Hints:
This protein is of the alpha/beta class.
Amino acid sequence: MRQTIQQLLAQAKAQIREINGDELRALQARGTPVIDVREPAEFAAGHLPGAVNIPRGVLEFEVDGHPAVNGSRDPALGHRDQPVVLYCRSGGRSALSAEALQRLGFSEPLSLAGGYLAWTEGGGEVQAP
Length: 129
């Protein structure tokens, strides 16, 4: 059966937990890793403070140090039993990413509802070049 992207996103969002900006701030204060799954150029234009950039296209490979990313492992993904926050531009890619990490054994992958757009519209701090 074919699905629309809206149906695919609805299924992903039904499986994961989305958080708002206030919840993200509280998690950041506790040291929870934040991963920007946008493309490198998007990240370079501005991102959440302390976020690491792991594009959606390589996230599943990066998590286990796959040779496709030169065998490097991101320390932000080293603890599968701890929360990790993912965000993208509007919340779609991060929801799909959270669902993928959940399937890979992460206990609490969280997606920022509304993504970077909602964060900035809500007055969230941004690191810019």
